[in-house]
Design brief:
The protein is of the alpha/beta class. It has a single domain (2-177), classed as Rossmann fold, CATH 3.40.50. It has helices at 14-25, 32-38, 49-68, 82-94, 108-121, 129-138, 158-177; strands at residues 2-7, 28-31, 73-76, 98-105, 148-151. Strands 2-3-1-4-5 form a five-stranded parallel β-sheet, sandwiched between helices. Helix 1 (14-25) crosses helix 7 (158-177) and helix 3 packs parallel to helix 4. This is ATP-binding protein. It comes from Agromyces salentinus. InterPro entries: P-loop_NTPase (IPR027417).
């Protein structure tokens, strides 16, 4: 089994790609935004750090349970800062699972275009500008962690999701051979 952690800025298309990956891999999709919603919280407006810690703890528990059942797990989150990724890496290791980061890279112009389109169409909850700016300024990229890198413009492409899923399956097979 493998734990795949999505990583990237808001509006990069992480949730879109995570859903497609979960279908491709027959994986359990664990969304921190959905866990927050279950708890009556909305991250786009700002959530206190202690609440994020609780959400992460709940997500880790869910992932440990699914990995224990032999399932693939796709975690839909920003995957930043680095200690967040390290925590997920520990969950995967404890479950004897492979760990991979799927980094969805987005440039500032495309992110802004998507934010403004969302504000006009309200397809998902808004993320206020102060949160977007703060996240962009504090984002710790996984460049030195051998991520699978996906361009944000390709997250709706089913062929891209299939290719990422194939890479994840190959990584799992390599780990089994080790």
């Amino acid at each position: 089994m493998t734990l795949a952690l999505m990583c990237g800025l808001s509006f990069a298309g992480k949730s879109t790609l995570a859903s497609a990956l979960a279908r491709e891999l027959d994986a359990e999709l664990i969304s921190l935004d959905l866990i927050n919603a279950e708890r009556g919280l909305h991250g786009g407006q700002g959530i206190p750090l202690e609440e994020w810690a609780t959400t992460n703890r709940l997500a880790h528990e869910r992932a440990r349970n699914r990995l224990g059942e032999g399932r693939y797990v796709v975690v839909d989150d920003t995957g930043s800062p680095r200690f967040i990724r390290d925590g997920w890496r520990e969950v995967a290791d404890a479950g004897d699972a492979s760990f991979v980061i799927v980094w969805v890279r987005i440039d500032a112009a495309l992110q802004r275009e998507r934010v403004l389109a969302n504000r006009a169409q309200q397809e998902r909850p808004d993320v206020i500008d102060a949160i977007l700016t703060g996240h962009a300024g504090s984002f710790e990229s996984p460049v030195d962690e051998e991520p699978i890198v996906v361009d944000a413009a390709a997250t709706r492409d089913p062929l891209q999701a299939a290719a990422v899923a194939d890479t994840i399956r190959t990584m799992r097979a390599r780990r089994a051979d080790e």
